[in-house]
Amino acid sequence: MALFGAALLTGCQQAQQSLSIGDMASAFxxxxxxxxxxxIALSVIIFIGVSFALFYTVQKFREDxxxxxxxxxxxxxxxxxxxxxxxxxxxxxxxxxxxxSMAILNPTPDQAxxxxxxxxxxxxxxxxxxxxxxxxxxxxxxxxxxxxTRQPVALTVTSGDVIHGFWAPNIGGxxxxxxxxxxxxxxxxxxxGVYQGNCSQLCGASxxxxxxxxxxxxxxxxxxxxxxxxxxxxxxxAAGSAxxxxxxxxxxxxxxxxxxxxxxxxxxxxxxxxxxxGPDLSFFGTRRTLGxxxxxxxxxxxxxxxxxxxxxRVKPGALMPTYDGSEYMSKGKMLKGGTLTDAEISDIAAYLxxxxxxxxxxxxxxxx
Length: 368
Ligand code: CUA
What we know:
The protein folds into 2 domains: 218 residues, Sandwich (Immunoglobulin-like); 120 residues, Immunoglobulin-like (Sandwich), CATH 2.60.40.420. Helix 2 runs antiparallel to helix 3. The radius of gyration is 27 Å and the shape is elongated. By secondary structure, it is an alpha+beta fold. 36% of the residues lie in helices and 20% in strands. The chain is built from 7 helices and 14 strands. It has a 5-stranded mixed sheet, with helices on one face. It has a 5-stranded mixed sheet with strand order 4-10-9-6-7. It binds dinuclear copper ion. The site of dinuclear copper ion (CUA) has 9 residues, from loops. The site of dinuclear copper ion has 9 residues, from loops. GO terms for molecular function: copper ion binding; cytochrome-c oxidase activity; heme binding; oxidoreductase activity. It is a multi-pass membrane protein.
């Protein structure tokens, strides 16, 4: 029964997180949808017209219907004027529509909530530049983007390596994430919910595994969550607990077996871990996805240990080293990871799971 319920729930979630641009959750998307409909409708009309003319001509001038070759002539001014005028009118019409939509969709994002989007092979980091954590540094979250609904949000998109594409189809508007280029544009959502985001630019081995979630919350709820994120400090584990051993390994690794520290690459707010090479793990225990949206919910829980043991084997191209001593391919080179015991891996997992926002700030709580 529970299994059936879970399956049903998963079904609902998938239904809600459709990847159709026709499932519109923003004014932005509505504009694009209207333009698509016009472009498709005009194309269909032209296609029918051209097909009809073609079949008519072929039928009418069949060789076996005529004894002599038909009249030979060169040029037809009337027809040529029409052939130029009609496409020009169509192009002008579509241009006016496009320019109008562009003006609506690209206002100066002064009043908007600002969120910085960083794309890297093969994950996302979302930083809230207007919110400095009490423990220092800007509030940030890996792979799960929170935004307030029914108000403008200015996303500034960039890349830390190759070109990626930021695209949440229900919200609309793909944006290229390019290294050394910061592109800002304004989006809004008109209903709270979870929307699926994907990388839309072929970027390497795990392009297809470079996903994210957009969690759009009602303004009040968003404020509560962001305030909790600002005040958040990673918990101090009790001495001797699995979490405490996990924290120790997280910060220092195990140099004698070649196991690199996690802190060299990842940030955890309120600890000395301030790495910027990988996604921010400050609220890892609250997150529902793992491996940049590769797994969700129970599956994400289940995959955490294999992930920590050998991330590049479960996600091709992942730049995280292995921790079970196995070899892995990184940027075209064969490397060998450090070694942690199963117990040590599970201590790190316990520590990561303890990195949780307070219950009332769990942004997944009200999500269907
Ligand atoms: Cu990043 Cu495709």
